[in-house]
Specification:
58% of the residues lie in helices and 3% in strands. The protein contains five helices and two strands; from the N terminus they run H-H-H-E-E-H-H.
Length: 140
């Protein structure tokens, strides 16, 4: 009986570690896609910055919707905490330490960047802005 429990626990740990590895690989792939786009836009691109991402997250913009001048308008200051839309809908935390499945589907990531950047900045985000912001929330 103990051996059966031990094998079950080992199988669960293996599945969890494989899942974590797959999620980490997906995050790396999403960042790599944005890095390629940033390099295409600017051959001098030297990498993303967690600090620039943090500043972008907290900065207020005048070009988007007045009720959402910053990412923090809905997502709050702490990416590890849940957010709330102006209409009151809950938003899962941005940080992968709390929401590890976030940012694993490139199409979904692009959809939300397009929507949120237009609402906050009044335009689509550049590849550099996307990569910096992703670097920030992936570091949390």
């Amino acid at each position: 009986m103990n051996r059966r429990k031990t094998l079950g626990a080992l199988a669960a740990m293996l599945a969890l570690s494989l899942s974590s590895a797959a999620t980490a690989a997906a995050h790396t792939e999403v960042l790599a896609q944005h890095a390629a786009a940033a390099k295409a836009a600017n051959p001098a691109f030297a990498g993303f910055s967690v600090e620039r991402g943090r500043l972008l997250h907290a900065r207020s913009f005048a070009g988007g919707k007045p009720e959402t001048p910053a990412c923090t308008s809905c997502h709050g200051n702490d990416p590890r905490a849940a957010g709330r839309t102006p209409s009151g809908k809950n938003i899962d935390p941005l940080a992968i330490s709390v929401s590890p499945a976030r940012y694993t589907d490139p199409a979904k990531v692009d959809k939300w960047f397009r929507r949120n950047c237009i609402e906050v900045l009044g335009r689509e985000c550049s590849a550099l802005e996307k990569g910096d912001w992703l670097s920030y929330v992936l570091s949390q």
